[in-house]
Structures are given as structure tokens and as C-alpha cells.
Amino acid sequence: MPEAPQLSVVIPVYNEQDNLEPLLAELAPVLDGLGRPWEVLFVNDASTDASAQVLARLAAAEPRVRVITHRINSGESAGQASGFRAARGELVLTMDADLQNDPADIPRYLAALRADLDCVCGYRAERQEGWLRRFASRTANRFRAAITGDRLRDAGCTYRLIRRRALVEIPVFNGMHRFLPTLIKAQGGRVAEIPINDRPRQFGVSKYGINNRLWRGLADCFGVRWYQRRALRVDRVSED
User: Fold this and answer.
1) What pTM does this model have?
2) What are 107-116's pLDDT values in tens digits?
3) Can you name the CATH fold of 7-230?
4) Contact 186, 148 (CB under 8 A)
């Protein structure tokens, strides 16, 4: 029986069959080098390719790998939420399955998570995407900052390290993953950012375009602004 994990890595998966084995092969040695027990939770969001079969092989070969399966395709926010609910570690790392997030950055996340912080977010200093996607991201970030007041450098980057205690009362909705640091701040949490390495996609295709990345995110800003005004602090209970 594997040792109880201190770090849970949550990875939503949708049609990433060619990326999964290389990802775990790169990720596992980095996690082993941290000197703390870990688990990886792959959340298969009703993939229609061979992702389910690949994940079954990975879990059979590595007892620290767990697979969560969605009956219906529900999106990245649902994938993260399912992973958060199943995570056993006190620290939760979220990353993508497309190999664009570099596992070598993980020790830097842990070093940056000071005792007074609840979340460390990555920002892609040199993004490996076309000009149209970069333009859409800049536009969304500026609009988001104007509406929510949260001036994250790269709100679209979902490579983050979070204390599990900060996730207990996070509202779950379609689009939550884009606003997770903002929601944590609204509940009284503290968030920091670090620059990370962004790599080009090698296999498969992106699941996001202008319609589901830009316009939906802009509309969600107004709902998040409402939540910021109504949110309760998670540290409201005295420990005495």
C-alpha cells in the first residue's frame, strides 16, 4: 500500500492519448526527487480516443497513479473539481496533460509556497502559441482585471500549486478553473506568481479556441465579481 501522499497532482484529460505516457515518464522522476510521498490523479473527461486504455496501463504499472473517469464530457473545471474532491495530499498541484507544462518547474512552485500563501500560480513569460491566441489572452486578462480587480499576469495558465484547505469552499462551475486564484483571494487567501517554462504542443490538438476561451471567460467575469462581493472567508473560525 503506497504511503499517504503529501502532494496530489491533478491532471484533467480529454483526448490526450499520445501525451500521457511521456508526461508520466517525465513527471514521476521529478516527484520522486522531492523527498515527499505523492500521487497523480488523471481525470479522464469521457475521452473518445485511447486515453482510457493508456491510463489503465499507467495505473496498473504505478500504484501512485489513480484514474477518475467522467461518464460524460464535462470540461476542465469539472475535471479539476473531481480531482480536488479525490485528492489526499495537503498540497494540490494542477497541470495540463498536453506536455506544455514543464514538470521541472515543480520544485520552484514548492519553494515559492511560503507559509503565508495559499496558492502559487505560474505565468508563461514566453508563450508558445500563435499571435491570435496571445492577443485573445491579453484582451481577456485586461478585461478581467478591469471587472474583478485581480491583476494576475496569466489567468489562463492552470499550472498552480494550492493548499487543499483553500479549496474546501471553492464554488464549482463551468469556467471555475480560469478564476481559481481569484476565488481563493475572495475567500481571504493569499496568492503569488512565478514565471514558468511554456512548451509547444507536440501531439494532439488544443481543446480551446477563441469562442470558448475569450468570450465565455469575459462573460464569467461578471459572475465572479458578484461572488467577490458575497464570499465568506475560509479562515473565519478561530483555532483557539
Assistant:
1) 0.88
2) 999 999 999 9
3) Spore Coat Polysaccharide Biosynthesis Protein SpsA; Chain A (3.90.550)
4) no
